[in-house]
Amino acid sequence: MKDGIKVKNIVPKCGADFLIPFAAVYAFYIILHGHLSPGGGFQGGVLMCSVVILLFLGYGYKNTQKALSFNLLHKTEALASIIYVCLAMAGVVYAGQFCENVFANFGNIGDLISTGTIFYMNSAVGLKVLTGIGVLILTMLSALMLDDEKEGE
How far apart are CA 118 and CA 103, in angstroms? Predict the structure, then answer.
């Protein structure tokens, strides 16, 4: 603290700036290729939450809260749930079973979009987990910040 101004250390900020793109690309890769290999929506969504933690470590709570608002995350989580249920119900309507694969399987085995409905359901799960756990992380960080403010008084 210099002259009453709190100065943020540049090392965590530079480290976060360096790691965030790699973490985001890897998480999206896991989400998008989850139907082809072990992993998928849940694992990729949890990995994407490391971006939220890196934002906090590099830029602090206020900037993280500005970048990721609670309302936006809640609305996006609800949208992901609706998308998943609609895709699952399409199986009931068109094939007679919940979560049945109703879209045509395009491409060859191993292609990115080669599994029909499974790819889209996996992506919806990734978005839901990302937003749900992102809200939990922001809630825990806000509680942590409240504790720090109480200690400072």
Answer: 9
DSSP 3-state assignment of 39? coil
Output the six-digit token pair for 74. Answer: 């809640």
How is the chain split into domains, by residue range? 10-152
Are 34 and 69 spatial neighbours (Cβ–Cβ below 8 Å)? no
The overall pTM is greater than 0.85: no
15-23 long-range Cβ contacts below 8 angstroms, 24+ apart: 15/57, 15/58, 16/54, 16/55, 16/57, 16/58, 16/59, 17/58, 19/54, 20/51, 20/54, 20/55, 20/58, 23/47, 23/48, 23/50, 23/51, 23/54
Per the listing, tokens 């007679």 go with: 96
Cβ proximity of 36 and 63 under 8 Å: no
For residue 8, name the pLDDT band (cuts at 50, 70, 90): low
**Cα separation of 47 and 54, whole Å?**
11
Compute the C-alpha angle 57/22/56, nearest 5°.
Answer: 15
**Largest Cα–Cα separation, the chain:** 70
Determine what percent of the chain falls in helix, strand and coil, rounding each to the nearest 5. 75, 0, 25
Report the pLDDT value the prediction gives residue 25, as an integer from 0 to 100: 94
Query: Angle at Cα 127 formed by Cα 138 and Cα 70, nearest 5°?
Result: 30
